[in-house]
Amino acid sequence: MIRLAILGSTGSIGRSTLEVVRRHPERFRVVGLSARTRIRELAGQVAEFKPEVAVISDDDVLRGADATDALPAADWRGGRDEVVSLAGREDVDVVVNALVGAAGLEPSLVALRSGKRLALANKESLVTGGPLVLAAVAEGGGELVPIDSEHSAILQCMEGAQHGSVTRLVLTASGGPFRGWSPERLQHVRPRDALRHPTWDMGAKITVDSATLANKALEVIEAHFLYGMEYDAIDVVVHPQSIVHSFVEFVDGSVLAQMGLPTMELPILYALCYPGRVSDGVLRTFDPIRSSPLTFEAVDHDTFPLFGLGVAAGRRGGASPAVFNAGNEIAVQAFLEERIRFPDIERVVSTALERVDGGPPESVAAVLEVDREARALARGIVKRLSRP
Predict the structure, then answer these.
(1) CB 27, CB 5: distance < 8 Å
(2) Is residue 336 part of a domain?
(3) DSSP labels, 340-383
(4) Are strands 75-78 and 94-97 parallel, antiparallel or unpaired?
(5) Same domain, 288 and 220
(6) What is the pLDDT, as a whole number, of residue 359?
């Protein structure tokens, strides 16, 4: 029985994780769940899965809960510190970090320092604090297993590979809803257009990131830290069918790819049971005939400048990846609220990168300070760009 703590259980990845748990009650037991504000949805999950601990990171929401919320039996706690505490509990084997933002970094570090498996969906942990995460793995002996479909694919392809035998990683990108569009056409897109992803069902923020290809830049930075590959050895191609999730090329010229229909439940199940595999009758069977043809294209850097901007931030290192991430989060939210236009997302991020500088963050506090500064600057840029 694998004992789980799921951080961000009411988000897209959290709900998918619970769907996997629901199908395999003999393998998994939920010890703790956390959400930021969705107390009623969390209460429903607590009633079903009966964890020992339930955490609302926004303490004001928990304090404001009244009798009508009818919270089911559990040890209910409030505050961000309780989320961090949940990640380090002795009775937890695997921590699923599905939090959004730099707030996910500290729980990741605590889980790894506690010797646990960290099933990581929180990109920001590696993007903003990659060196800190690697140090935590070395310090506590924890195990870092990615949930991203692309990184799960790379992990599966590299299983059993000898050290030094991998020469290149190739991540695939769907291209999002605006593949083939011109920069001029993107001037007039609305949030509803960006949220119509052709192959994946995801949360709003990551769906917009897929539409700008910022998400793929973040994944390149993650791959650099996860697999110790230099940026020159990490490529990205557009693959509209979302069937091939990544390629791994070896020194002898062999190339392995992991394939499967687009569902996050597969990489979640793999991360929870790694390195083993578990039979799951619900996950769809791949049909190579019905899925054909499989096509691949180069990234259009002119239409999607955020991709190159993010990779350049990763190469530059220091505080740049954290600034890229923070500026992008503020800009995406402003776009979703229709305060700025779609191309303005890149303007916000590029300006933030020009104005915020700093060396490699050497602590969580330093990462959060860079994050705070970049967000404040990005909010000011958004205000100046805001549509009347």
Answers:
(1) no
(2) yes
(3) S-TTHHHHHHHHHHHH---S---SHHHHHHHHHHHHHHHHHHHH
(4) unpaired
(5) yes
(6) 76
User: Would you say 7 and 147 are in contact if contact means Cβ atoms under 8 Å apart?
Assistant: no
Per-residue exposure over 20-34, b if at least 16 CB sit within 10 Å of its own CB, e if not: bbebeeeebbbbbbb
Which tokens go with 303? 């239409």
Provide the residue range defining the domain that includes 45. 2-146
55 forms bridges with which residues in the sheet? 34, 77
Decide if 270 is inside a domain.
no
pTM for this prediction: 0.93
Q: Do 92 and 195 sit in the same domain of this protein?
A: no
Closest CA to 237 of 178, 286, 301: 301
To which residue do tokens 């600034």 refer?
323
Could you give the residue ranges of the DSSP H alpha helices within the chain? Answer: 12-23, 39-49, 59-63, 80-87, 105-113, 123-140, 149-157, 191-194, 204-212, 214-227, 265-273, 305-316, 320-336, 344-355, 364-385
Residue 312 lies in a domain: no
CA dihedral (207, 212, 217, 218) positive or negative? negative
pLDDT at 158: 95
Would the pLDDT of 288 be above 80?
A: yes
177 plus 226 within the same structural domain: yes
The amino acid occupying position 34 is S
pLDDT-derived band of residue 372, with 50, 70 and 90 as boundaries? very high
Angle at the Cα of 122 from the Cα atoms of 116 and 123, rounded to 5 degrees:
120
- Tokens for 94, please give them: 């695997």
Whether residues 46 and 100 fall in one domain: yes
pLDDT tens for each residue of 213-264: 999 999 999 999 999 999 999 999 999 999 999 999 999 999 999 999 889 9
**CA-to-CA separations, 200 to 173, 309, 336, in angstroms, rounded:** 11, 24, 18
Task: Please count the structural domains in the chain.
Answer: 3
Do 153 and 295 lie in one domain? The reply is: yes
